[in-house]
Automatic annotation (TrEMBL):
Organism: Limnohabitans curvus
Gene Ontology biological process terms from the UniProt entry: siderophore transmembrane transport
Keywords linked to the UniProt accession: Cell outer membrane, Membrane, Receptor, Signal, TonB box, Transmembrane, Transmembrane beta strand, Transport
GO molecular function annotations of the record: siderophore uptake transmembrane transporter activity
Identification of the protein by name: TonB-dependent receptor
Lineage: superkingdom: Bacteria
Amino acid sequence: MPHFFTRSAAAAAVFTLFGHHVSQAHAQASTQLDDVTITSRALGNAALLVPAQQLSGAALTQRQGSTLGETLDNLPGIANSSFGPNVGRPVIRGMEGDRVRILQNSGANLDVSGLSSDHAVPIDPLTTERIEVLRGPAALLYSGGAMGGVVNVIDNRIARERAFDAPGGVMGKAEVRAGGAANERSTGAMVEAGNDQLALHVDAFDRSTQHLRVPKDMSCISGMATTPNGRRVCNSASDSQGGAVGGTLLFDRGYLGLSASEYRSTYGTVAEPTVSIGMLRRHQVMEGLLRDVGAFENLKFQLGHTNYTHTEYEGAAAGTRFDNQGRDFRLEGRQQALRLTNGMQLDGTIGLQRESNDLQAEGAEKFVGPSRTQSAALFTYQALKTSWGQFSAGARTEAVSVALREDFGGNVAQTQKFNPFSVGLGVMRNLRGGESQNGWQISSHFSANQRAPKDYELFAHGPHVATAAYEVGNASIGLEKATQFDVGGEWQQGGHKFGVTAFSSHFANYISQQPTGAYRLADGSPGTTADLPVYNFEGVRARFYGIESTAKVRMAGGQDAVLTRNAAHGNMDLELRADVVHAQDLTHNSPLPRIAPMRLGADAVWSRNAWGARLGFMHAAAQNRVPDNGASPGVTTAANTLWNAALNFHTHSGPTHWLLFAKLDNITNKLAYSSTSVLTQTMGSNAPPLAGRSLKVGAQVSF
């Protein structure tokens, strides 16, 4: 792969974007910024059965953060497992880490972000087209162990349908943004060109941030020394670049495409004032689809290869290094629709998937030995449409082997084998008459999930600075098992909408870290209360339950005869959202750690012609349900209310669209802490709070 993803890549792509002539054919079908609700691998109306959320278009642009977790944070049921401003994975319904599967274009995203809280996900929202969250039976297409859900990050590096006619054309997008509490400076660009037989894609981004500004005085603590750092979080700056090239051959019965991408990032780890992480990920993908193959409407395959490495630097000296090489293969077939009696229709997908990755850690602070994880899976998802609604069912069986390749931490080299099996059922009752979108729609989902333990849950043995603990794996631990159920309803009447979902998850064997009361030095020898507490991985019984709700009230504008008299002043909506999750370790009768509190949010959203504005707040209740940290009580978080506002202007000239936007977050500069961040528990009074008042502005142009 050409090594051209440097600081100048984004600027070069922007120049390319404006230097090409736009064909007349494409000028008649210009890029739109409207939000489109799409669910991954939707089977006709099967999207009705998937309790999914998505971000795309202008909504994604305006919510975009520096991490995937920050971008999705505060969507109903989703929080951010923040490790400072540079690292954040989504937490869904209280579940984090490897219980949330992160995909890229429906393929495996092989990194080590699940291994440690300070390891970033090597995906940047700047080059993302849309983000989808899947739960229910459809999630079994991708994972049986994703009890929280599946997050699918989608780009267009491989074109899956024709965007140009025979004469060909060019389209693209460029974006710049600046400001915020971390003084962000970022640029991103994408260019696509081709005709009805060939599509080419190039994208690149560059992002840099300074130390995060917060509403309190902070210090840099190193050993016995404490250095004041003003109202900035110590060691929280970052510098990231990346990009990709892709090409696709398009033909009447399908396509065949290749893409290669690179992601580089250097960022401070926040927990240690002199330690930074240098990350590099290279990823290559081949993907193809063939239509009308016997009993299948189409067959699709995907083959990926990933080289990932990151090094933890102590000052300028290289320290612990993690290398992960992974391969994944996926083959799936969309069945021809089977039309049954009484207007019923059966749609479905079946397929197989295989993944393999080799993890190697070297250095004084490695806490896992060299390992190899291999898995093979068969899966299916079926949807039966009826005149009154729909049934769905999914199943997935896997064979997983996790091998410790050499003696480590008291464990001899060994291979543990697991055979997880997961099933899911769903039903939707549509009470809306005919083609009307008004009225109620009721849905419910049940699943029995199993997850094979990860290498670190089996074989970890060493000091883990990110969690301030000495972690010890359990080679005899069994499958994680959960039974999950949710029921919800959605109502719509014109511009008014309301939805609510209640969920419950019961774990017969929830793999968690439990304090032992012992302490060790970094070399593993016995320590005192001033040293690292020892945490063992252990299977416990656990229970999660909660409620998510959203509503939109059309205060003025269209779709209601009473309100249209105010339409000259634009549309005004009141958007409401709320969620709460309760999580308990039933074995030890203790709360589970890092759970978001009850949250309530409201936004007044106005739009008129090219203008749009938003003013609202998110209130987080106090989180007092925290487990003990060994011999000491856990750290609670106080209630807070964060106000925010946004303004955008959208215009176009011919095929060129402009979006100008500004965001003002934490308007009152409120001091607040995240209950889902491990740093809140481990760093005491010097834990980084959420960002202070910040203004970020940006512009996006597309054609």
